[in-house]
Amino acid sequence: MGELRVEQLSKAFPTAQKWGRSKWHTIFNNLQFSIKSGEFVCVIGPSGCGKSTLLSIAAGLEEASSGSVYVNDSPVRGPGLDRGVVFQEFALFPWLTVRGNIAFGLKSKGVPQAEVLARADKYVDLVGLSKFADYYPSRLSGGMRQRVGLGRALAIEPSVLLMDEPFGALDALTRENMQLVLSDIWQETRKTVLFITHDIDEAVFLSDRVLVLNETPSRIVCELKIDLPRARDRSDPQFQRLVKQLDSAIRGDNNTTKHFGDN
Amino acid sequence: MKSEKTLTGQLLSNPVPVDSSTVLLSAGSLRHFGEFMVPIAVLLALWELVARFGGLPPSLFPPLEDIFRALLKMSGDGHLAADLAGTFTRLFQSIAIGAVFGTIVGTCMGHFRMWERALVVPMNFLLAIPGTALFPLTMIWFGLTEAAIISILIYEVALTVTVMTWTGVKSIDNSLIRAGRVFGANGLSMLWRVLIPAAMPSIISGYRIAFSRAWRILIIAEMLVSVSAGLGYRLYFAREYFQYDMVYAGLFVVGMSGLLIERVILRTMESMTVNRWGTVRELK
Ligand SMILES: Nc1ncnc2c1ncn2[C@@H]1O[C@H](COP(=O)(O)OP(=O)(O)OP(=O)(O)O)[C@@H](O)[C@H]1O
Ligand SMILES: [Mg+2]
Questions:
Q1: Do B186 and B45 have their domain in common?
Q2: What's the number of CA atoms in the CB half-sphere (13 Å) around residue A192?
Q3: Domain presence at residue A27
């Protein structure tokens, strides 16, 4: 239904110009991984390691220096409605209501007008905003705004959902609430998800598998399967153990890295 | 699981605030009307005081009574209606053409690098030439006709709106454009589905400046070019015949018309768009 493959992906940005020759800052080199259909994968890593860059390339908003991202075996060449993106900064259209925002992608898809409304309303419901369907984003709370962002991405019924620290701008309580909302929705829809975060707890709570990146030029230093049953309980000792393991992997503890690298 | 349901429940059971757009035409508009009439009443009262007790010649400071009599006379003999019709037709024709042109060109300049590169230099060149300085030229081209006026108004409006739209589109938050691209807006649909609404605060400011510039130029132009009816023409005509009360009445009408354009058209445009969306703060 929706498989995402990252193959030999490299990205470098030009930095300061020196004597007319630009120097290059390599963000990552030959990055390689894939996400199975219906799998929820979190990518975690220190700030500046290129997580957003990776997601932008997958979304088709940024070009790779070499290598490609494949969605269902076709290479990504620019943005497309087979991928729904949820942005860290929400990026809602302030001139459209909640319903209008969620319907935006449907209109681009050429869904007939009558069906657009019905389908938008279905997703307004799914993200729990039916009472606020006619509100403009300026009058919603942060949590509600990101529900709209999630609804907008889900409404186009994409093969793959790409999320860049979607809850990073929310307070702790709202974030946990949103994680529950997402977890529920995911169990219902079983989308393929690439989820970026730097919250270890969030990664363990949500995903089937976690990929850990290190500092630039970054590579995957650890891959960890999360086999806990859902809905997950943060106080479960198993949960705590996985959080600890990830924590030491991110801190670059070599022994642990090797150990989990085998996983 | 349970905690989520109660949290969501609390969120959703919050009282729904009244949408400000629905009360726009009821209680709010009465208060607005009052807010805008009070300063006018104060000004009129001051005028009357100076005219009656200031000891100035009545030809320079005619009392309100004379001005209103002149106003009544103008509206009674049909001149006022014809002048208003003439002036407003010229204004709206040129605003409509200039604003559409400026909005589209400005948006393209703000979004497509080719457009920007090609047009920035000519735009800056033209910005240095005031519309009024083109009068000699348009009079040669079109003679003393409507076209001589309207072409200058279109020039001024188009240029103003282009600059404001261009800068407005350039300062759109990049994340909105990225979201637009991700959700299928491209090329033309990017313009009207994302860029124009996102730049609406600047675009409306552009219309506002364009309106006031066009209005000033239009009144002067009507004095220079002998059109058959128009507020500027009426002012000129009144002075020629030493009808000072008529001059004041004409000025009063010119001022009121400008005010009404601002209040009725531009404010409505704002409250229907940027104020409703909450992208421009409304002062409490
Ligand atoms: N357009 C650009 N031009 C030059 N360098 C860039 C550009 N975009 C990103 N970078 C660089 O790429 C690196 C990775 O940036 P990126 O935004 O992907 O990090 P990140 O992992 O998402 O960090 P965070 O967790 O803080 O969001 C940074 O060093 C940044 O300076
Ligand atoms: Mg980032």
A1: no
A2: 16
A3: yes
Q: Which helix (H) or strand (E) holds B94?
A: helix B79-111
A201 within a domain of the structure (yes/no): yes
Q: Is the CB of A27 under 6 A from ligand 1?
A: yes
What length does chain B have?
284
Residues B260 and B198 in one domain: yes
| Tally of domains in chain B | 2
Tokens of A31: 């990055």
What's the one-letter identity of residue B30? L
The rounded distance, in Å, linking the Cα atoms of A220 and B85 is 73
- CATH code of residue B194: 1.10.3720.10
Position B8 confidence tier, pLDDT thresholds 50, 70, 90: very low
What is the A52 CA–ligand 2 centroid distance (Å)?
A: 4
Q: Is the pTM of this model over 0.90?
A: no
pLDDT for the residue numbered B126: 94
pLDDT in tens, A233-244: 889 999 999 999
Tell how far the Cα of A105 is from the centroid of ligand 1, in angstroms: 27
**Residue A227 is part of which domain span?**
1-77+190-263
Cis peptide leading into A166, omega within 30 of 0?
A: no
Q: B210: closest CA among B99, B53, B55?
A: B99
Residues B106 and B82 in one domain: yes
Mutate to test the interface with B, among A108, A126, A145, A185 (most CBs of B within 10 A): A108
- The answer to whether position A86 is within a domain reads no
Integer Cα distance of A90 and A164 in angstroms: 10
Residue A152 lies in a domain: no
Closest CB from A59, A81, A91 relative to B175: A91
pLDDT at B27: 58
Note whether A61 and A4 are within 8 A (CB): no
- Residues B176, B213: one domain? yes
Burial class (CB in 10 A: 0-12, 13-18, 19+), B273: middle
| B282, part of any domain | no
Domain final position from B30, B55, B80? B55
Ligand 1 centroid to Cα of residue A88, in Å, is 14
Query: Residues of A at the B interface (Cβ-Cβ below 8 Å)?
Result: 59-61, 79, 81, 83-85, 87, 89, 91-95, 104-105, 107-109, 128, 131, 134, 136-139, 141, 143-144, 152, 156, 173, 177, 180-181, 184, 231
**Phi/psi at A74 (5° precision):** -110, 135
Structural domain boundaries enclosing B24: 1-55
Judge whether residue B12 has pLDDT over 70: no
B240 and chain A: CB distance < 8 Å anywhere? Answer: no
